[in-house]
Write a structure and sequence with these properties.
It is a single chain. The chain is mainly beta. It is built from no helices and eleven strands. Strands 2, 4, 5, 6, 9, 10 and 11 form a seven-stranded mixed β-sheet that branches. A four-stranded antiparallel β-sheet has the order 1-3-8-7, with no helix packed on it.
Length: 114
């Protein structure tokens, strides 16, 4: 059983930066991949970025070159560094991890607005 606790997020002006973190506990050795989804009002949840146990990363086209996903602390913490934020990045962001099932964080609001 894996538990995920998110931190970070908030309100930022366009062009600004935010960092999201996701701390995992329990069953860490069984984690195959971790990542971030987001869901904007009236839209479906979309994959933002992911990172495998081996460190292979994948990004949505809309965030490539602006967002960076990382894992550290022996793999039990994951972060999403978000730079050059745009209003269309506004959404609730959810971290997840995959073992033999998927676990989710509690979600955190990111609002990009002037």
């Amino acid at each position: 059983q894996v538990q995920l606790v998110q931190s970070g997020g908030g309100l930022v002006q366009p062009g600004g930066s935010l960092r999201l973190s996701c701390a995992a506990s329990g069953g860490l050795f069984s984690i195959i991949a971790m990542g971030w989804y987001r869901q904007a009002p009236g839209k479906e949840r979309e994959l933002v970025a992911s990172i495998t146990r081996g460190g292979i990363t994948n990004y949505a086209d809309s965030v490539k070159g602006r967002f960076t996903i990382s894992r550290y602390n022996a793999g039990n913490t994951m972060s999403l560094q978000m730079n050059s934020l745009k209003p269309e990045d506004t959404a609730v962001y959810y971290c997840y991890c995959t073992t033999d099932q998927r676990y989710w964080g509690q979600g955190t609001q990111v609002t990009v607005s002037s």
